[in-house]
Amino acid sequence: MMKHVNAGIIGLGRAGQMHLRNLMTIPEINIIQVADVFIDKISGKLNDLGVTNQTTDYHELLSNPDIDTVFVFTSTDTHEQIVTDAANAGKNIFCEKPLSMSHDEEASLDVLRAVKKNNVKLQIGFNRRMDPQFRTIFENVREGKIGTPQMVKITSRDPDLLPHDLIQRIGGLLQDFTMHDFDMARYMMGSDISEVYAKGGTLIDPTLKDIDDVDTLALVLQFENGAFGVIDNSRRAVYGYDQRVEVFGSEGMLKAENVNNSTVELYNDKREELKKPLPMFQKRYKEAYTEEMKAFVDSILNDTPLVAQGSDVIMAQRVANAAKKSLDTGLPQKVNTKFSLD
Amino acid sequence: MMKHVNAGIIGLGRAGQMHLRNLMTIPEINIIQVADVFIDKISGKLNDLGVTNQTTDYHELLSNPDIDTVFVFTSTDTHEQIVTDAANAGKNIFCEKPLSMSHDEEASLDVLRAVKKNNVKLQIGFNRRMDPQFRTIFENVREGKIGTPQMVKITSRDPDLLPHDLIQRIGGLLQDFTMHDFDMARYMMGSDISEVYAKGGTLIDPTLKDIDDVDTLALVLQFENGAFGVIDNSRRAVYGYDQRVEVFGSEGMLKAENVNNSTVELYNDKREELKKPLPMFQKRYKEAYTEEMKAFVDSILNDTPLVAQGSDVIMAQRVANAAKKSLDTGLPQKVNTKFSLD
Amino acid sequence: MMKHVNAGIIGLGRAGQMHLRNLMTIPEINIIQVADVFIDKISGKLNDLGVTNQTTDYHELLSNPDIDTVFVFTSTDTHEQIVTDAANAGKNIFCEKPLSMSHDEEASLDVLRAVKKNNVKLQIGFNRRMDPQFRTIFENVREGKIGTPQMVKITSRDPDLLPHDLIQRIGGLLQDFTMHDFDMARYMMGSDISEVYAKGGTLIDPTLKDIDDVDTLALVLQFENGAFGVIDNSRRAVYGYDQRVEVFGSEGMLKAENVNNSTVELYNDKREELKKPLPMFQKRYKEAYTEEMKAFVDSILNDTPLVAQGSDVIMAQRVANAAKKSLDTGLPQKVNTKFSLD
Amino acid sequence: MMKHVNAGIIGLGRAGQMHLRNLMTIPEINIIQVADVFIDKISGKLNDLGVTNQTTDYHELLSNPDIDTVFVFTSTDTHEQIVTDAANAGKNIFCEKPLSMSHDEEASLDVLRAVKKNNVKLQIGFNRRMDPQFRTIFENVREGKIGTPQMVKITSRDPDLLPHDLIQRIGGLLQDFTMHDFDMARYMMGSDISEVYAKGGTLIDPTLKDIDDVDTLALVLQFENGAFGVIDNSRRAVYGYDQRVEVFGSEGMLKAENVNNSTVELYNDKREELKKPLPMFQKRYKEAYTEEMKAFVDSILNDTPLVAQGSDVIMAQRVANAAKKSLDTGLPQKVNTKFSLD
């Protein structure tokens, strides 16, 4: 008899609905109940999908004894409260980063303390770790196929600018976007980032200066184990979502190019190219989103390690904060790599 | 409100279960009931998936007025009877090729007459037509990107030999395997095959001669519109499932290479290659299996054209029969391209 | 002290001049004298290159005792006479195929008998054998990397139509163009072609029928060792010179795609493609032309095997003749694989 | 009548001999005389190549009135003297970088003043600018295919460590190796580097610290026009010579991957990879070495612009010096971009 995770889902906005569809394809997950403050607007759509147990109040869901695990897809400003409540209700938790709106990490550490006290599992949504391409690199690095890692190289470019008000809500380029690259860099190298230098500017949208943000970044990383890293970012790559990772080591190199929408080649006199990088994160990381959920289910049912833990989000945030300071001061910045909840 | 197809599924062996999981990911499909003569063996697994309305008797399913569409995944020898019964019960039908065990096409034509008389839709499982790569070629050919098609080139190699008794049940290389290539060739060129020459032998398993089969084939096709084709087949490609299509025309060329399991490149002193062609048809054509079902649903709900019709299976079978005769006689063979149910 | 080949060059038309420049880059070759009936027209150009010993009369060159090796780049209709004369003068000979204008092979065999009698080396200009890509396939096949070869697949398409009068002088598609593919097929498989089936037509230029030629061909080959082959040809690929070879065997597959003019990728919103197959045989086979000469020099100086011998041109011609008969009769044709000069 | 460059070559060590062979393939170059202090050791080899006018004294060559252009391939410590003498003798000059051993640029500026005063042409051997791949990027950037350049990304890794004494003679990683990348970055972006940050260490050979060098580098560049750059370097890539360039801009991206030794793909059960990056600079930049010479010839004969001028070597050196200071201090460093010989 198959073991199951009995799940509640909190937050069914656009992201939540994407995750819901992915969760429904995993046989080990029973979706017991869903909660959203605006549940009425999407009730019909949910019924069509067979998800009929709906509520506006996430507390109702947390008090449901049939539910052992909750997936939190609400907006960032609610994470701190909901994750703490879920931990205190004894549920395992999946939550997108970050855990708190506050750049000061104490608020996030408090959330992690609640998780620890209640002895529940918390997985952070660093989905790129489970992207099949990057995961293949990760595994081959761990198997020693390239010897000792010496350099990680990440190119990460978004297809287009975000609205200024959204940036002000979710954080600037370093704290919303590059943060994923900092996590990827740590993950690949198996070592913490101990120093960061960031240089950037507004080459695309000069008005970003008004909200203290940039659209173009070049960074150098120093890892605790002696290795190095380079990252380059842009807010707007006209050709799509550009996501590439390379790890170089003493015995070789592993690299993942962009995933294209097609393998078909057209040769005509114009030599038009049909292959294009996938345009949006939803498509590019579709498998990653499902794989991170499968890994979380596996961790719950079989006690395998979590893909990304609470400490990972703290560490990535510290680097983002240090990089922001580097950008502001023009000087490289040290990063604290010690982590403790005590 | 979303329109739905209310489906019954007949046949839940290995193939049927794969299709069932795919069908469950399509929101427009409600699975009302499933039937299999050995339903007891898989009842628990089906319950786990939430498919609880089960029967051993497909007649019960066909008489269920809530069902408008049936998916037939039973063994080939039952197709003739079940598709005829389903047509007479007024259900739309999806069925894998062929429609009959008989190489004489009269039995298949009788099935198609029942479909026509009852005015139901019948889609044949030529799934490769909906493979995203091949579909991209098809669409670009239709859009005139390579001008007038002059040559189609298909390489199709299976990963390994089949057991002799299975071959005897489902047909030899030409009639089970190459038949898909004949259909692909017709589909790409938009023209019927009017002549075929086949040359082959037993380079892998000489005992295949005992059951009148070959493991290696080289073919030349002549199309009614004047174009040409070449096909090469093998029963055993040690590197995986090799499925490539190329169309050449007056203004250019389109080609689809194999789909690999990874885009990651490993450079070390051994220069080991991580990219491998997908090993099995289930994985290689996973998207194609889902896409053909989506297209069928779309045809039912919105009356769009079927991906592959009854006449398509008759045509592919005629070429397979002619190719077998060519192999036996050493001479090219004409193929009848006239089709009528009268 | 470096050993040298002391060379005379006969024929300095466009092809001859291309070869001359290649020969000048090989340090082991001293160019002693050149001959061309129209030497006056190009005398200045030759002087600029430092090639000052010029004559209109190739007999003068053949009687020059300082010359041990001649390179024959004259038009096909002169090969029979000049190669025979050169053999009788005791010179080693490099000559483009074919050895005679006559489709009847007796004339060519007479040339080979002269070569044998005088015990000189004769290398035939099957330059593609020394193309670095195809040579890599050849060597890996010989090293057993793909086990026993079972299928060779050749796509060979020219960039554009030839003038009708040129075709009438040098032979039709099968005898001028496909002949190179027949030689490549034999070379790769290490076995003679024992049967051929050719199907073709005039899809590009219907007036080719007037001179008994075709512009599009699809062929099946049977090899003496049991293996098979497929070839497809076209007179006009709008995207350039299309030259691809693939060998499939019991333990794997080797394939060479086209050589592009660039590795640079351009990603913009039009996704324009910069990589294009090399457009002309002179550029595509530039290295092959030099490598075949180096191999010939090596064979002369160190008695290594010739890249392509007289018997190779006879064999390729036999297949071309049989293929022409197949095209005319619509039936496969056997090919005589016995070779003897007695 | 073809116009010619009448050339003298000074320095025929390993590099000089490679260049000599390249120069001999360019018809517009007449090699009048060669000079090397150890000419006796290679005299036989030169005679074999037909280069018989040899001397040990480069002054003799400079006073030869038949020579209009000299190619300087001697060791770096002689550049300052020889280039100055050649300029004062009124010869056009090709010379490898740098112009002087001194890190202080005054010595180099004195050389350039002699060149200017005598009104001769001086081309610097920044051969990579004429690599066909990088040149294709350059030209497409100039044609506006990617809009305004915003980021340049260079990966440059050598196949293996150099001996410590050689490093001490030619300079450390930044000043010998990365200097080429600084020049490439300037060339691609069409703007000077105004600030540099360098981070590095000894991950391969810790004893490099003894000679004040590193083996691994990560750098961030700021350009005068506002754009950015990232560079990563390693002394030892076990898989060969890794040379990649990418330019990203407002309307797209151009990138050049490594050039492989083959396009052949081998698919067997081990999935062994035959394609390897070219292993050595001599092979990787073979075409670049010839193309830079052709461009120099073209500049002399037709007064087209030089590929790389004296000011280019000064600018690259300044960035290298600033990067070294950044490495030593841990702080980013400004670079002076003003250039004047007055």
UniProtKB/TrEMBL annotation, chains A, B, C, D:
- InterPro entries this protein is in? Gfo/Idh/MocA-like_OxRdtase_N, GFO_IDH_MocA-like_dom, Myo_inos_IolG, NAD(P)-bd_dom_sf
Entry annotated with the keyword Cytoplasm: no
Instruction: For this UniProt record, give its keywords in alphabetical order, as a comma-separated list.
Output: Oxidoreductase
Q: What is a single molecular function from GO for this protein?
A: inositol 2-dehydrogenase (NAD+) activity
Q: Which Pfam families match?
A: GFO_IDH_MocA, GFO_IDH_MocA_C3
Q: GFO/IDH/MocA-like oxidoreductase domain spans which residues?
A: 134-254
The UniProt record lists the EC number as: 1.1.1.18
The Gfo/Idh/MocA-like oxidoreductase N-terminal domain is annotated at 6-126
Q: Which family does it belong to?
A: Belongs to the Gfo/Idh/MocA family.
Protein name (Swiss-Prot/TrEMBL):
Inositol 2-dehydrogenase
What species was this sequence derived from? Companilactobacillus baiquanensis
Highest lineage ranks of the organism?
A: Bacteria, Bacillati, Bacillota, Bacilli, Lactobacillales
Question: Gene encoding this polypeptide?
Answer: iolG
